[in-house]
Every structure is written in C-alpha cells, then in structure tokens.
Fold 4'-phosphopantetheinyl transferase.
Amino acid sequence: MAATLGSDVHVWCVPWRGVSAEALFRPLIAAYASVPADDLPIVRGEHGKPWLSAPLGELAFSWSHSGDTALCAIARGDAGFELGVDIERVRPRPRLLALAERFFSPSEAALLRSCTEETRLDMFLALWTSKEAVLKAHGGGLSYGLHRASFHVVEGRAHPVAFDGAIAPATAWTVQPLDVRAGFAGAIAWRGASRTVRLMTQDTEPFPSTP
C-alpha cells in the first residue's frame, strides 16, 4: 500500500461502529507504514493530535467520524506534514446562525445571514468542515479558534481568505471539499501545494493487511 501512495492523498471512507478511531484505523495506517499494527508508534500532541514518531514521521494521517461514517486521510510528506480531515452528518441545526455569530469570523456570519434558507445549511457545513480540517491539520483543534481560519463560499465550495496566528498565511494551504457519500459533508486540508486526492471506500472490515 505504501508504494501506491506516492504524492497522492488517500481518503478512506468506512462504516463507523462506535470503536475508537485509533482502534479502527490502526491496521490501515500500519499497512501504509509496512509495520505490524501493534508496533505502529502513534503518539499524541499537546492538544490530542495523533501522529507517528520517528522513523515513520513522514507518514501523516488524520481521522474523523460522524453518524455511521468515518474517514481517514493518509499522505506522505516531510516530518510534521500538516494534514486534517473532517466529516459532518447533514442534519437540521436550529441554532446555526447563533453558532456562526459566536464562533465564525464576522464576514462568514454575515455571509450566512445573507444567503437563502435553502442554501444556508450547506454553506454552514462547507465552512465548518473546512475550518475544522485546517485546525486539525495544525494540531490546535477547535480550542484554537474557528474564527482564525476565515473562508468565503462560492458555488458550495469554501475558499481560504485569511488565516491568522500559527496557521497563517491562508495562501499556504490547500483545502478541498470531500463528497464522500449522500447525507454527509466533508473537507480535507493540508499545508502545501495541490495534490491528487483519491477516495477509497470500504463497506466491511478488515482493511488490507500489512505487506
């Protein structure tokens, strides 16, 4: 599996059965790292971001789950390569505007207020998943502040506008929507130039075994 990765980003979409993300995806990541799953050196950053310690630090990954679906993104880069993924189930959010006013940038909140009722939820989810993907890639998570990554939405796609703090500048990032399955919104982000994203789906376990 490691040989097939190259410079691409692989995103696995699998059923979520309530186990921990680490337990679910450890065998998959181990297959890319070409090591037994029990020997995979997953460690946690200050805010909980999982990563691989040396000598496997060039293999980056990120996971997310919502409803009955889970994602795991895997890419190869320099040690510390920043990669994040997020998925959210599409469901009614009565407090959508209140959440945006509290946690989004002023321009994003204004964008959501001005759009039609029919497009508001999709726009909110495009913003939310893009923001969370960036913050997960950085490692600060939601506690770092959703307002620090500001986007504009055009034709349903969130485009980086202004990032501040340790995640700046916005131009350093690639952020893409993920159309993983009906009823879900997703996004992937990494710091660096554009790459090819390959979506891999699997309805049953186990994952491919370690080479």
Observations:
- The radius of gyration is 17 Å.
- The chain has one domain: 2-201.
- The mean pLDDT is 92.
- DSSP finds five helices and eleven strands in the chain.
